[in-house]
Amino acid sequence: MRILLVEDERDLQQLLKKRLAQSGYAVDAVADGWEAQDYLAAMQYDLIILDWMLPGLDGISLLAKFRRTDLTTPVLLLTAKDNIEDRVTGLDAGADDYLIKPFAFDELLARIRALMRRPGNVRADTICVADLMVNFSSRTVTRGEKQISLSSKEFAVLEYLIRNQGIVLSKEKIEEHIWNYDFSGSSNVINVYIRYLRKKIDDDFDLKLIHTVRGAGYVLQERL
């Protein structure tokens, strides 16, 4: 899942980006509304976390412009403004939820999960392919009777594969969805994580679920 974080308080921005990445999210972080507008024009996001008070183009103005384009990406508004009038202003501008600073990180995660469960963003909480079962709320993975432990990045790659089961995904598409916009790591990183997943999910089983489609990418499905 890919998130755009728009927050001009550098320490808070870096802390949130780090904690969200540790929780398995791909996060692009920017510090002003104009830069956020450029990112939104270039990339697709599953969620936007938007600070109200931004230099240049403020969060409410950016949100209003964003909604006028008929884009429906969920927006979680962050602000120190806590009176009813400000909440109404933020929600009327197009925010889907409103979180008052300071806040607990666990509450932020809970609100992200809640936004993803709303109509129009409904995602299955558990998906099974053959005897592989992935639960996204508890972030647990089992194959048959075997409990499988994954790193946050391994889980993110598996989630993208299983939510798109039967669809061939190129390395570029996986990288774009899982890693940050400014990622500059090895071009072999997708191969490495696919190898990690195969070792944990497929190696002990006769039925293989993660397949390579030569020249095209990878697909997770029961039969190729």
From TrEMBL:
Gene3D superfamilies listed in its UniProt record: 3.40.50.2300, 6.10.250.690, Winged helix-like DNA-binding domain superfamily/Winged helix DNA-binding domain
Annotated ranges, domain OmpR/PhoB-type: 124-222
Matching Pfam families: Response_reg (PF00072), Trans_reg_C (PF00486)
Claim: Transcription is one of the keywords in the record: yes
Annotated protein name in UniProt: Transcriptional activator protein CopR
GO annotations of cellular component type: cytosol; protein-DNA complex
GO molecular function, one term: phosphorelay response regulator activity
Single GO biological process annotation from the record: regulation of DNA-templated transcription
Domain Response regulatory: from-to ranges: 2-116
Modified residues (4-aspartylphosphate): 51
